[in-house]
Structure formats: structure tokens, C-alpha cells
Amino acid sequence: MIQSGTESILPKEQIIEVDEPDHLLGNGGVQIMEAYSEEDISKVLTYAYENEKTVNVISGGTKRGFGGETEKADILLSLKHYTGIVEHSAGDLTMTVRPGTTLKEIDEELAKSGQFVALDTPWPELATIGGIISANDSGPKRLLYGSARDLVIGLRIVYADGRVIRTGGKVVKNVAGYDMNKLFIGAMGTLGVISEITIKLRPLPKFEGLSLIHFPEGSESEIRNFAVSLLDSMMEPVTLELLSPSLAETLTGKNSHTLAIAFEDRQKAVLEQEKWIKENLPANVVHTVIHQEQAQKWWEDFRHIGPNGHNDDNIDAHTMAALKIGSNNLDVLVNLQTAERLAETHHVTIEGHGGLGHGISRIFVKGQPEDIVQFITEFREKVEQRFGYVVCTHLPFRLRETVQVWGEKPAYFALLEGIKATNDAKRILNRNRYIGGI
Amino acid sequence: MFGRKRKIKTSDPLVRKLMDIVGESEVLFEKEDLVAYECDGYTMYKGMPRAVVFVHDTQEVSDVVKCLNEAEVPYIARGAGTGLSGGATPLGGEVIISLVRMKRMLHLDLENRKAVVEPGYINLKLTQSISDKGYYYAPDPSSQYACTIGGNVAENSGGAHCLKYGVTTNHILGLEVVLPSGEIVDIGVEGVPDLPGYDLLGLLTGSEGTLGIVTKVTVKVLKNPEGKKTVLAYYDDIDDASQAVSDIIAAGIIPAALEMMDQVAIEGVESAAYPVGHPRDIAAFLLIEVDGIEAGIDDQIEEILTVCKQNNVREVKVAKDEAERALWWANRKMGFGAMGAISPDYLVQDGVIPRTRLPEVLAEIREISRKYNLRIANIFHAGDGNLHPLILYDASVPGESERASKAGSECLKVCADVGGSITGEHGVGIEKSAEMRFIFTDEELEAQTNIREVFNPQDLLNPGKLFPQPGRCVEVKRANQDEVQLV
Q1: What is the ipTM of this complex?
Q2: Less CB within 10 Å around the terminal CB: N or C of chain A?
């Protein structure tokens, strides 16, 4: 039935019938259609739109557990073969790239010209640039380098009905028309399929250093005061990331609240800032400093924590969840502590980190499914009391029915629905994957 | 009572209704009062508003909007009126909602690096009010002494220092907005990043007042850099200057600002209020500023000096003190206004190009200058490829306004053809709406107007801006001719 006529869309070797059991994370498809070109994407969507077939989109699969109340759509559109850098203009510090390219591939290529994409998102060898942009993923270095919305300057989008629309452009400064790029960043593919990305680049830092400061138990006010004094100084940290004791143990071997403060600049400037840290250290902390390859290696390890869509365990007691918390910058500390406290009472284990200068935290939870649900519910309540929010960036499919992945709908939800209806009136794209069931 | 009624010589029932909302003294409706609102900083097109309403708080904005909706009268939000593309200019008959009286700072939270201001708050005042604590607001359009934060949001304004620090959109954390329905919505005024849901902050910023009226703005504030050094480099050949720009970027330096001016522009600024003593016979100068950690700056300055010398610089110097640096910047920031010293009228353009294409684009602009027999000065945010050709003309010479307008449009075509954009920071407004077709297809324009319909279904809020209008070109020309005859 569904297959009828699909050969005219794509060659049959690009269409795979799925006969495997349901995936733990859902967001699958009855048929996988593999796109090798923008034209392929457009053909699949044109067909789906005309025939009202639902479409899920995937490439690296690292965000398969992020949102979505559909076990299987009619079509799982895979972009993992639509890869490659289309254009790299080193003199303009810009690059145009296809969505299925992994961040690692991109950065390896750019490194040859001494440049990089300033997104330190997790699992770079698995996560693709299209997925990172669609999920608006980010890492601790957004403190200085910004996030996807600060870096993306142009997109090509295949709309639900198969039309190809360009947004933005290829230049770093552009205010012609609405800033349509922004709509697609973090939209979880509900407004169109990103088929090409033009992004700003940065020169690789000349020198990098990482200061790790381990605080003894009960040092909340010392952590806060130190962070405030650093932020109020003229130092320019690339990260001011607070790690939970459990995560610090995994990454540094020390079970204590730890601040990871990175500097990336000319060597003299890095050393000068590290001197500032040393001179302003609170009492009773343990302080270590690493440079260059050692610092890079540490961040490499940091990018390999938490679920990646491929490392879930089928045993109930090992169920994994990941949360993204947005809050006022300094509430990161309070939220992290709340999570630690709730983890104990709810019999789950957590590892967490958050940026005291940028307000985004991540918490990885492990335990029994029902405990995880309870934990998230109570944690969200506490975070919301301080104007923050909790989004579940990874949850097994069946738990997503009981936990609201995105939290409550905002008061202006009608605008979001209106935008969705404008771009995808038949709601074929990633249905129910986004806030309020969009 | 009688006295008051005598003052109000209007038979317009709408004006009376607006007075009921904001108070009698807060509505302008007499022709002589409205003239000042005929245009913004883009003076080639003028239109008469029906009235001007001064609002004082969010509720008043909402009430006024609802009243105008009911009457089906179009309206425009306006700040200081410094916009350079006609975004706040009436086409004729709109009610202008002036936000200049909503000018308070509502909240300052330096620990969390944010401030909440009303839309009429002046850009420079924000920096001045926090500078004693060592903080500043980064976007610095040349009009920053007058322009409002609300207007900056509408236009997604840039400035000389956005090469390193980004434009307005990179510094907006939250907004309160009155929608065209009159509904008041809070889009993250608390300033928490990455709010769940489509990025309405990003969409609204730069929407040129066509999607909603901003009534509160939460902005990011930054700590002053520890050190700052400024370099001035004089070139005999503009291609050498262009190559130096590319080489600085290629060396892995991201200057805070990287500005260029050509010979005609230099003639202007040297004849204006802040002459520096630039040699008149050079082809161009570069103004380069590096900021950041003091200890890292000297190395970068050394590299910049080396790059400049490798590219045949005639003379290059580092500002010896803050006074000299301030003078160089005052001279640069006077750039547009200074054209008044060497030409009766000028038209500013705002194209963007990949910075590596600068030499060929400048050559084409010289060609356009010859073709239309009009002098063109170039002031250039060279680091991010944002070119401001200033077309010098005399509106009292019949036909010269039209020639200037055509020359401006051709400059934008050149920018579009090398893969650039028609506007980097001034917005589309009335001025460049036809040129939107240089970079977008009809389908792509429709994708945008469809979004407008979600917010602004009746198209009463700032209608006729930003998108190509059938027949508009004719209208603009006619307006110009009228103006010329009047003069």
C-alpha cells in the first residue's frame, strides 16, 4: 500500500523496509528513505505531502530520544548520506555544508585552514550538523562563542510540500527581510528539512588552557562568589562550567563540585588569566591547570558523556534520561544542587553540569523508569519556580507519553501553531515532536 | 472643559478616541505638528501621518492598537526616527505610535549580565548608565547618541564593533510585545536562554516593526575589555587596503572593528567637525581596533602592523592615547553626516559582500559612479563585508535624485551578484523593498509574508514595508519629483 509508487520517488536501493522490532526511542518509520541530494529530499516530501504520509527525519540518530510521540511515521527520511562541505571560504570565515555531515568531519577539514565551527556539542563523530542545528544543541563554550543562532547565517530548507526555500544568505551580516534562519534552529524539523547550512567560522585558538577548581563540600557561597567575581573581572573565560561531584569524579577523579574554566587566546593572554584565577582562588580548594593537548583531551572526554541515541540499555534499572535546563545564569548552581538532592530521595543517579555565565545546564539521569519520571516532575517544578524551564532531550519512547518533554505550552502558543500551519499545513513533518504537540 | 474643547480643532473622531486613551496633550493631529513625522532618516520618500500618539506604558500601546484595529486604520511604531531605510515613514494616513516616552530602565542585574529597558531608551544611555561599573551594551550604531533600543530591535541594528560582538539580535534575551491584535505577550522578558518553542525573539528582531510593537527589551550587557588598541593605516592603493583586510582575518585575528574609508569619504570627514588630518591624497585608510586581554593585544597589533606593511601601506600608526583613539572614532562615526560638508544631498547604501570580493565590487562601484556622473564615497565595515556607498547628489538639480536612487540600486545589485545582501544593518523599509527581488525569489518572499500573516493578518501594522509592492517604484519617483518642485 505505502510502497506503491515509491520507486518513482527514489531508486529502490534507497528505500528500506523496516522489519525490526520497535526502537526503544521511537521516532522511526515504516520505510526508511535515504536521501543523497536535496532533490531526493524534495521528492520524498512532495510525495509525502501529496499523499499525507507522516515523515520523521534522522541522520546521526543522536537525538532520536528527543521529543516525539510517534513510534513510527510512514517514512523515516534519512540524511546521513547527504554529506560534504559544499564551499569553504577561509578568507570570509564561512562554510556551506550538507546536513548529514558530522561535526567531527567538518572540524577535521576546517582544521587544515586553522578554523573551526564554534559548537562544542556532544558526540561530534556521530552528531551531524543538520541535527545539531535542528535541535539547537550547544556546549559549555557557548559562553564566549555563542550558540547556533549566533553562527548560522543561511539555510536551504525543503518545505513540507517539497519547495526549496533559501533563508538568510552567505554573508556574515544581513538584515534583508525577516531573519527566517532563526525559525528553523531548534525547530526539531517541524517547519522544514534543512538541506544546506551556511555557518560562520572562527580561527582556531592559538593557545588553550583549562583551570579545574575543586571545591570542598558545603562551598555553595564560595562557588557563587568566585563565579561572580570572575564574571565581574575583565577576564574572558570561554567556559565557566560547574560540574556536579559525580560528573567531576568521572572526568577528573575528584568527587567534588568543580568549576571548569577554559581560556582560549594568545598564550600570553591565557597565562595571564590563569594567573588571575590563581591569585583569586578561594581557600581550601584544589586547583589544577592543564594546557593544549591535555586540555583538548579533557574536553574531548567531556563531549562523550550522556546518552547518544545508540548507548541506551534495555534493562529497566539502567534507563537513561537527559535534561536541558534554561535559567538565570547564577541559578545554575541552585538548580544543580536541587537535582543532586532530588536524585538521592528518588533513587536515581545523576551527572550534571551548567554554565554560570550562560544559564544552560544539562543533567543526565539513570535509574528505574518510574523514579526518573518522578524526579523530572519534581525537578521541573523547582526550576520553574525560579523562571527556568526543563526540556527532556533524551527519554525512552514510552516515558515520553508520561512526561511532558517540553513542559507547558507558552501563552503565545497560537503564534507557534500559526507558524507551523504556514509551513506544514498537513502536519506531516516530525508530527508531535515539538512543544504542545506541534 | 470649554477651553480644552476649543483647543482641539479636529473633526477626526479617531483622534478623539486616541485622546481618550492617552490624554489630549499626547496626540498630534495638526499638519504643522505632523510634518516632523513625514519621514525618518531616509528622506527620499515622505508621507503624511494621520496623527501621532505618544504612549506611556504597555497597556496604552495595547489599547491604542485595539482602537486602531477597530477603526481599521494602519499604524506604525516609531522611536527616534533615525532609521535609514524609511521603516518609520508613513505611506500616508497611518497613525504613528511614538514610543519615545517609554524610556525607563526597568531592571538591571549585572550578576546575570542583563538589563530590562523600555523601547524608547536611548542606545548610548544604556552604556553610559552602566559604564561606571565597567559594563557596556555592545551594538553601537553610529546614531547611538539618539537611536532607541526599540528601534534597534526593529532594525536589528549593527555598528562598527559588531564584527567581534555581533549585531542586536545576538544581544536580545527577551521581549515584551504588543501583537497587532492588541494582545500583550511576554517572550522571555526574564532573559532565560533558548526558550522552548520557535525562536520568536530571533524572528521579531529585525522584522522592521511589521510583526508587533516591542514594549520591553531584555538585553545582554558585557564587561568592558581589559585592553584596547587602535591602528590607523593609510594606503595609496585601495586594492592593497582590501588585501590587508583579508590577510588580517586570515591571520586568525578577529578585531573588534575593522573599518575602511575611501578618498571621497575622507574628503568628507576631513571637512566636517572632527578632522584628524588624514592625508587627502591617499586612496583609503583602515581603522583597526583590537580589544581583549591586555597581555594578548600587543602580539596582535604587531601582526597587524606586519600585514599592513606587507601590503604596501604608506603609513601606519597606533593611537598613542585615548584622546587620539576617540578622535579617530569621532571622525569615522561622523562619516555619513560629514557628506553634508561636500555635497548638498547624499544617499546611503548598505550592501554586504563576502569580504574577499571587495576589490572587484569597489571597481564596479567606480563604474556606476562614472555611469551616473555622481560621486560615490565608500565607508565600509570592511571586516564583515558591510559596504556603505554614499551617493552624493544635489536634489535641486532636476533628475539628480532619480539618478542617485538608480545608482544606489545598482550598487546593491553588484553586492547581490557576488553572493551578498542588499542590507547589512539599515533594513529594507521603503527604500530597498524592490531590491528584495535581487536576492529572493517570489516563493521565498511569500514564505516570509506568510509568516507576517500569522502575526499581522490584517496588515495594519506598518503596511507596505520590507516586501516588494507592485507599482511602488512609480509612487516613489512621483514623491521625489513633488519634493524637488517644492524645493
Answers
A1: 0.97
A2: N
